[in-house]
Amino acid sequence: MSFNPRHALAAAVLASLVMAGCNRNDAEVDTTADSGVNPPAANEPVTPLPPAEPFPNTGTTPGADTALDVSSVTLGTAAGADLSITNPTSSFGTGDPIVVSVATNGAASNAEVTVRLKYQDGQQAGEESESITTTGAETTNFTFENADPWPTGSYTAEVWINGTQAETSTFTVR
């Protein structure tokens, strides 16, 4: 984003107008201006406005993601065209790619799905995120590759939805 002097000038003018309005005394306010709304006469009854219609209860907060659940987490070294793992496994070689397939169900708008790989001592071995919008079943795959061989040992794949841990799956590298 670049600096635009016209935007700065417009902001300064707007700020000074707001500040000028804040410093007015009630005696300075022109009450003779015609607003188009005439107050009722002193002896005329005031008719109250009808009650406002409540917001429809859709079960969700406006603008918030609705429920998105993790149905399953499947690990393997490759995924097919349909995004399913072709050969599920929980044991990988040191040079294998690690594909974490996350199946979700529910409805969400721009939900952040994150997968973190943790090595046996809790050290993070990888992290990937993807934003998804869905109204039903969805599969999202995360592929982790290491330029160096993966250290042998036990790992955990943690799945997070919008910053909340939803599922874990353990695996080993031999």
From TrEMBL:
Residues 1-20 form the signal peptide. Residues 57-67 have a biased composition (Polar residues). Residues 29-67 are annotated as: Disordered. This is Secreted protein. Keywords: Signal. It comes from Lysobacter zhanggongensis.
